[in-house]
Write a structure and sequence with these properties.
Strand order of the largest sheet: 1-4-7-6-15
CATH superfamily of the largest domain: Sulfite Reductase Hemoprotein, domain 1
CATH architecture of the largest domain: 2-Layer Sandwich
Largest sheet: 5 strands, antiparallel
CATH topology of the largest domain: Sulfite Reductase Hemoprotein, domain 1
Number of strands: 22
Oligomer: single chain
Structural class: alpha+beta
CATH class of the largest domain: Alpha Beta
Distance between the termini: 58 Å
């Protein structure tokens, strides 16, 4: 770009956004001079989408990078070598996933110039680029702002990207197009003063119908499903959903919220959350915990009271005047494909990647992106292809793909040929082959096991088997997270996995928890539960066993979720017997490396320091027994005995705490109060348990359940404690693994 590009772009950037970017640039300079507190600056950069990231190719110690960091291409990263200034990740908000071709070109340019030339589509329709130097972020933000893209509040304790069904406006089953409503709410809440004092993030989603998965409203802090009542548009509205370590199903807030109340109600909900939500304990600071604490009826009452006292804002209804003018138009007239010669692989691609719009003669074409990645060159050329076939009707999806809407049927073969030249004609969109994964250990500081490495392996294996896959499993969803936090949305997959590890014979071995029972459709209608930890290298066998068993033994037209519920968790666990075993290192060393990484597995860069204390060989056996108790709590939950599920899950946590205490104090009493006190004193007050990246949060699970008096054992309460017990045990394993165990 020419030397005067900033001045040339200044007129294209909204004044308030330009001022904000200038301020951030000044804050970076202040931080370099030590004039801004680290915690304040961390939230400042996060609210502009700037994340730190993990580096496997650079070892950090005492605030310094001791080895040159590199781009994946091998080029050295520039800039100072302090940890705060090490290149990181830039998240870019794409409201409802909507992109223009001009935006695609700028995104391609910045990824090429400031990053490693890779753009990553996230499970929230955002775009991320990695290995970005923080001193480049203000210029990067200016170039994005000039084409209408902001990074503001892409991270941090803020309103995150507002997502919406990518088929809105062209879907056969939708009630109406939710796009303009999602856009209006995103613009209204962006930088809103009532949304600046949250304890944690806040996520919003829109869906055009209840039966599909596109909006996933049940797993959001606030979710809207399009409804028609007495001939008028509105929204069935939900609050308090969320995945994370312990998922919560959203609760019904309103059966019908009229459009004129959409913005003020969202504002009132945000005000109540900001005022009453947890601030000090981040582990319980999401709105799902506030709704659970207050109860949905009391929460609704508080929001309605808040709504009454809010000063009127013309913006609440101003957007309604523009609804009639909103709409998309095709670039070309609709025409049938007719007798156009079809390439050999075209039909297989079209079967999975082409969706017939409700507008006759037009289709949606999905560009399937393995691992959600697209290169700068591909993105730039895809923008040219889009200009050839459609107007600016391009969207990202929550399944990490890109779609082109309003493609004339007559152009589908030509489009396919063009995509083939860019190596963007992968089939299998929306099928079992289209595996979703978070960044995991590649770049995330919280990653335990390689979600992307496993996803790549599964995609390769399943693609090779594609012609032999039974129709019953072809549309399964596989979703993988590198840790328990569910960024890969493993809780709502047919087959979900999240990363963990085990210490075996002195080695740390990568594992994944198997999560079954989740439901992707009906806006993420149900969440799965972890069934047990399996060595990472055995996960392909897990998928083969479970899917083969389902194909052979399912009843006619029985869904996978119904099948898992019918056979029960005991039979599933029996099915996986043998896959938990890890051969000795000298027999098969491959188990001690992660997918896509030739190095011996370690989680050492997730935390620092080691626990000290006397180690007894019985601990691992006892932790295994705790897992058995945790599994039994799931059985109780499945059978509807919520009191037994709750109490068994608590006992599993209690016994895991006792197992750790016994590494220092063999004569620990059996009394629950004594166990909890010894655990608090020896592992929490000393921060030995807290040394793990989520230890404080998981320790509080035990303390809370120990102290709580339960008036009524409901499914929601029992389900939460069952989830928490498994996570507490996982952290106990991690803490024990950090000890000097041989």
């Amino acid at each position: 770009m020419n030397a005067n590009w900033k001045e040339e772009l200044r007129d294209l950037i909204p004044e308030d956004l330009s001022t904000e970017i200038d301020t951030f640039e000044a804050q970076i300079e202040q931080k370099k001079q030590g004039q801004i507190d680290d915690r304040v600056f961390a939230e400042t950069r996060l609210r502009r989408g700037v994340y730190g990231q993990r580096y496997d190719n650079g070892q950090r110690f005492d605030g310094q990078v001791t080895k040159a960091l590199q781009y994946p291409s091998g080029d050295l990263l520039k800039g100072p070598d302090t940890v705060w200034d090490a290149p990181g990740m830039q998240r870019i908000k794409i409201p409802y996933g909507g992109l223009t071709t001009d935006q695609m070109e700028v995104l391609a340019d910045i990824a090429e110039e400031y990053s490693d030339g890779i753009l990553h589509i996230t499970t929230r329709q955002d775009i991320q680029i990695h290995y970005v130097h923080i001193e480049d972020t203000p210029d990067l933000m200016r170039r994005l702002a000039a084409v209408g893209i902001t990074t503001r509040e892409a991270c941090g304790n803020s309103i995150r990207n507002v997502t919406a069904c990518p088929l809105s406006g062209v879907c056969h089953t939708e009630t109406f197009d939710v796009t303009p409503y999602s856009q209006a709410l995103a613009e209204f809440l962006l930088g809103h003063p009532d949304c600046q004092d949250f304890g944690r993030k806040f996520k919003i989603a829109f869906s055009g119908c209840a039966q599909e998965a596109c909006g996933l409203t049940s797993m959001h802090d606030m979710g809207m499903i399009a409804r028609i009542k007495d001939g008028k548009r509105g929204f069935e509205t939900y609050v308090g959903g969320g995945l994370g370590a312990v998922p919560h199903q959203a609760k019904l807030y309103s059966e019908f919220l009229p459009p004129e109340e959409l913005l003020p109600t969202a504002q009132a909900i945000c005000r109540v959350f900001a005022r009453l939500g947890e601030k000090t304990n981040r582990a319980r600071a999401r709105i799902k915990f506030l709704v659970a604490k207050l109860g949905i009826e009391e929460f609704i009452r508080l929001v309605e009271e808040e709504r009454k006292i809010m000063p009127e804002d013309p913006a609440w209804t101003a957007y309604l005047d523009d609804l009639d003018s909103y709409g998309e138009e095709p670039l070309k007239i609709a025409a049938p494909l007719n007798g156009v010669a079809r390439p050999k692989a075209f039909d297989a691609w079209a079967e999975t990647n082409i969706y017939q719009q409700r507008q006759e003669g037009y289709v949606v074409a999905t560009i399937c992106l393995p691992l959600g990645d697209i290169t700068s060159e591909q993105m730039r050329n895809l923008a040219d292809i889009a200009r050839k076939y459609v107007k600016d009707t391009i969207r990202t999806t929550v399944e990490q793909n890109i779609i082109l809407r309003w493609v004339s049927e007559s152009d589908v073969v030509s489009l396919y040929n063009d995509l083939c030249e860019l190596e963007l004609a992968e089939p299998g969109a929306g099928t079992i082959v289209d595996v979703t994964a978070c960044p995991g250990t590649d770049t995330c500081k919280l990653g335990i096991s390689s979600s992307r490495g496993l996803a790549a392996e599964l995609r390769t294996q399943l693609a090779q088997q594609n012609l032999q896959l039974d129709d019953a499993i072809k549309n399964f969803r596989i979703k993988i997270s590198g840790c328990f936090n569910s960024c890969g949305q493993h809780h709502v997959a047919d087959l979900g996995f999240y990363g963990n590890s085990r210490k075996i014979n002195g080695y740390t071995v990568p594992h994944f928890q198997v999560v079954l029972g989740g439901q992707w459709t009906e806006n993420a209608a149900s969440y799965g539960l972890a069934m047990g930890a399996i060595p990472s290298k055995n996960i392909p066998d897990v998928i083969e066993r479970i899917t083969d068993n389902y194909v052979e033994n399912r009843e006619k037209d029985e869904s996978f979720q119904a099948y898992i519920q019918r056979i029960g968790k005991k039979d599933v666990k029996e099915l996986l017997q043998g896959l938990t075993q890890v051969p000795a290192h000298e027999i098969d060393a491959s188990y001690y490396t992660d997918w896509g990484d030739i190095r011996e597995f370690t989680i050492g860069d997730m935390g620092k320091g080691e626990c000290a204390g006397e180690v007894v060989s019985l601990v691992q056996f006892e932790l295994s027994g705790c897992e058995t108790e945790s599994f039994e709590s799931q059985i109780h939950l499945e059978e509807g005995d919520y009191e037994a599920a709750y109490k068994t899950a608590f006992n599993a946590m209690l016994h895991a705490a006792k197992a750790l205490v016994k590494t220092q104090f063999l004569d620990v009493p059996e009394d629950a109060d004594a166990i909890v006190e010894e655990f608090r004193t020896r592992f929490c007050d000393t921060e030995l348990f807290y040394n793990q990246f989520a230890g404080a949060k998981f320790a509080n699970y035990l303390f809370r359940v120990h102290e709580d008096e339960v008036a009524e054992y409901t499914r929601d309460i029992a389900h939460q404690v069952v989830e928490e017990a498994q996570l507490f045990i996982e952290e106990a394993y991690a803490c024990y693994g950090q000890m000097n165990v041989v």
